[in-house]
Amino acid sequence: MNRETNDKLLEMAIKSNNIAGHHISSFEYFLDQGIQKIVDSENAVEPVMKPQGITTFIIKLGKITIGKPDILEADGVLRQLTPMEARIRDLTYDAPMVLNVSYIADKKQIAEEEVFIGRIPVVVKSKYCNLNGLSREELVKFNEDPDDPGGYFIINGTERIIITTEDLAPNNILISKESQEGFVYSAKIFADAENIKVPHTVQLSSSNLLYITFGKLKKIPVFTLLKALGFTNENELIKKVAKGDEDIENTVNINLLAYNADSEKDALETIGKSLHSVHPIDTASSNIDALLFPFLGRDEQSRRMKGEYLIYVISTMLSYSMNKKEVDKDHYSNKRLHAESYNLDMLFRFVFKQILNDAKYNFERGIRKDRIPNPKHIFTSDQLTSRLRSSLATGQWVGGRVGITQHLNRRSFPDTVSHLRKVESLLTSNRENSRARDLHGTHFGRFCATETPEGPNIGLTKNIAILARISEDGADNTEVINKIKEYGVKSL
User: Is the pLDDT of residue 475 over 80?
Assistant: First the structure.
């Protein structure tokens, strides 16, 4: 390939890959799908006080609709808002949100309204932006730079970006040597199922005993938990875990002798008593169903699958311990990047729950014997609008996290590109994480090998390579699942 062809291909590759594409696509996914999932997960609100003569009453939540950024002027005129006008007038570039709310009394709909619940800041150059689809000439007419990549918010006239963060992959098995005294190996799984996150730790003690910790359950014997999940046949357990390995089989036998529960009921009672519950079996059942590997299900029907997965985890960990191996946490297959969708989901879910609590309170306060308050009067819009603006303006997020957003660097175009492509690790910079700071072979082609700050953040702050792309949120995995089934993989 000659130099001219190489330069042409490189130019076309850069043009086809939007520098801020991952910010824009992640934000669009959140507004297209993520925000509706949050509404659907809440589904309905059931007030304690009901209208007179009605047995069952719920406030049902329907479809949420997002408009385009606009502004209501002092003279009452509502018109579209452009990013440049928002910058000049110190405005927030945001769009209205309308929620379909209906009242269901004794299974009959008695009212339905489109309720304005607040405004959400919009990413510039996304499909929800008023600049979307404009030609270079039209962008110039709106006083916009046609080469500006977008990917940022405008809050009170200031350009702010959500920094892409790097974290360990959820629902993944990370096996390593255990530093805790009395234990030699551990397998950690950061279980994540939409609105619930539960870290799991399976540990192998120096005396070859296996324990699991998740939720409020601390150091529960693994084989007691397996029997509580319905795996009461010990010969079957030995075969499933050991898979013919004599050393692993010996470890399983030691555990079965040390913690012997004869039946599923005995195992549940043992687990429930560890929580000092008055109703140990019910307490153990509710904790297992709700918190054990929630990504596999959160009901009694999912116990079999959870047990099979736990068997796979301990079998893999014992195999690694016999061979003195560890999972490489710094391999990028074990990492995930979180952009707008992940962070906005966390923030919106928290604030939306507060709004629903207020709506329930306002409904109960406004109810009369002969009158039911209008849905428009029970929802307040100021709280959602102000909280979203405040968090994006300051970077202070739910859960006590700070620095989620930053002021966009505009000193030069390369500085802007670098800032939009920045990735920050969630590891704290004051801890010694030498391996996390090193270049890894899996960074090649994904990150710039040279651009990183000096000092404590070296290696923890990276920059996505110009030609690298981040896979989009919500990708359809049906094709992959079908292909795996073609290769002979069977469902449990």
Answer: no
User: What is the DSSP code string of 208-271?
Assistant: S-EEEEETTEEEEEHHHHHHHTT---HHHHHHHHHTT-HHHHHHHHHHHHHS---SHHHHHHHH
User: Which H helix or E strand runs over 24?
Assistant: helix 21-29
Q: Is the pLDDT of residue 352 over 90?
A: yes
Q: Is the pLDDT of residue 492 over 70?
A: no
CA-nearest of 319, 352, 302 to 43 is 352
CA dist., res. 313 & res. 296, Å (int): 14
Q: pLDDT (tens digit, 9 = 90+) per residue, 429-451?
A: 766 667 788 888 899 989 998 88
* Max Cα-Cα span within the chain: 84
Confidence check: pLDDT of 112 > 90: no
Element at 111 (helix H, strand E): strand 108-121
- Looking at residue 31, the DSSP 8-state letter turns out to be I
Burial class (CB in 10 A: 0-12, 13-18, 19+), 216: exposed
Give me the pLDDT at residue 420, please.
93
CB-count burial class (<10 Å; 0-12, 13-18, 19+) for 392: buried
Report yes or no: 59 and 127 within 8 Å, Cβ to Cβ: no
What percent of the chain is modeled with pLDDT above 70? 97
User: What is the per-residue pLDDT for 15?
Assistant: 75
- Using alpha carbons, select from 224, 179, 241, 243 the residue that is nearest to residue 206: 179
> 408: which residues sit within 8 A by CB, 6+ positions away?
152, 159, 160, 161, 416, 419, 420
170 residue type, one letter: P
Query: What pLDDT band is residue 455 in, cutting at 50, 70 and 90?
Result: confident
Mean pLDDT (the chain) is 89
Q: How many angstroms separate the Cα of 225 from the Cα of each of 171, 214, 252, 367?
A: 19, 12, 14, 49
Residue 256: phi, psi to the nearest 5? -70, -35
- Spatial CA neighbour of 81 closest among 117, 119, 118: 119
Q: How many CB atoms lie within 10 A of CB 42?
A: 14
460, 436 contact by CB (below 8 A): yes
CA 62, CA 59: separation in Å to the nearest integer? 10
Report d(CA 64, CA 352) in Å as an integer. 12
Instruction: Identify the structural domains of the chain with CATH numbers, from first to last.
Output: 3-167+336-426 (3.90.1100.10), 174-322 (3.90.1110.10)
What do you get for the CA distance between the two ends of the chain, in Å?
Answer: 51
Claim: this prediction has a pTM higher than 0.90: no
